[in-house]
Amino acid sequence: MNHVIELRSGSAVVASFSLYGEQYCDPQASPDSRIIDYTADLFAYPSGELWYMYDKGVVVDGFNACVGDGSGGRGCDAPCATGTSCGVRAVLLEPLYSQARCVPTGAATAGSACAYAPGSDGFLYADCAAGLTCYDGTCHASCGSDCTCITDAGLPPGTSLCE
Do residues 106 and 127 make contact, with C-beta atoms less than 8 angstroms apart? Predict the structure, then answer.
């Protein structure tokens, strides 16, 4: 059975997650055991990220049929393809909802003006170079020890930028 969980801001879908549930469960008790309880936990970040955390199915005789542990993170877990880098894709700009993903690499440098434009997939991508994030119309480097940090609930988890 497939369920789609949506995180919304007004009528806009900020994030969605397809949960296939019981099809991944493999009853360990016996081949004809049926699942009587299935639980899945997702975590919604203020930025608009919706992450799989954990799921568990229990069969009629009390055994765990399946236990999954996603431990959160999605985003840029794997290396990004050529011409892309781990960065921010925006779902909405007002209010800001964004997600960490492999995004097209732009040419705008740190401190220069930037803008978001729609991609063919319906998300918004900035024209900043690799390692930079477009925030408030300017390309910002990731926060380190040599700058004052900006944090915003609309930025993906763990993202902080130099002021």
Answer: yes
What span, in angstroms and rounded, lies between the C-alpha atoms of 98 and 45? Answer: 10
Maximum C-alpha span of the chain: 63
Structure tokens at 153: 């609930």
What ranges do the domains of the chain cover? 3-69, 84-162
- Please name the residues in contact with 108: beta carbons below 8 A apart, sequence gap of 6 or more: 114, 126, 127, 128, 129, 132, 134, 139
pTM of the model: 0.64
- Torsion, CA 94, CA 99, CA 101, CA 106, rounded to 10: 20
CB 156 within 8 A of CB 100: yes
**Residue owning tokens 């639980």:** 39
What is the rounded CA–CA span in Å between residue 115 and residue 54? 36
Alpha carbon distance 6, 82 (integer Å): 31
The residue written with tokens 């877990």 in the block is 77
pLDDT in tens, the chain (163 residues): 567 777 787 887 877 777 665 444 554 545 556 666 767 777 677 766 666 666 666 766 656 556 665 555 556 766 888 988 888 888 888 888 888 888 899 999 999 999 999 999 888 999 999 888 888 899 998 777 678 888 776 777 767 788 8
